[in-house]
Amino acid sequence: IFARSEVVARTKMDASNLAMVMAPNILRCTSQDPRVILENARKEMAFVRILIESLDTAWVDDLH
Questions:
Q1: Burial of 40 (C-beta count, 10 Å sphere; 0-12/13-18/19+)
Q2: Where are the alpha helices (DSSP H) in the chain?
Q3: What share of the chain has pLDDT > 90, as a percent?
Q4: What pLDDT score does 59 carry?
């Protein structure tokens, strides 16, 4: 839904930007080491980006 080209053109929030905002709220790193936190943040953002890009939104079209 949010990654559609017409939405991205308006909001400037592509899958990577959405993942950057959403990942820290969905996934938490329990380490106190800044290096571990930074490395995990990259992996967490990549994981959430894949989820966003893989989301089947076909059912949303039926709502309109």
A1: middle
A2: 5-11, 15-26, 34-54, 58-61
A3: 64
A4: 75
Contact 23, 41 (CB under 8 A): yes
Q: How many whole angstroms separate alpha carbon 62 and alpha carbon 7?
A: 18
- Between the CA of residue 6 and those of 25, 29, 37, 45, 64, what are the distances in Å? 25, 34, 34, 23, 16
d(CA 42, CA 39): 5
Q: What is the CA radius of gyration of the chain?
A: 14
Please count the other Cβ atoms lying within 10 Å of the Cβ belonging to residue 21. Answer: 11
pLDDT at 31: 95
Of the candidates 17, 1, 16, the one whose C-alpha atom is nearest the C-alpha of residue 55 is 1
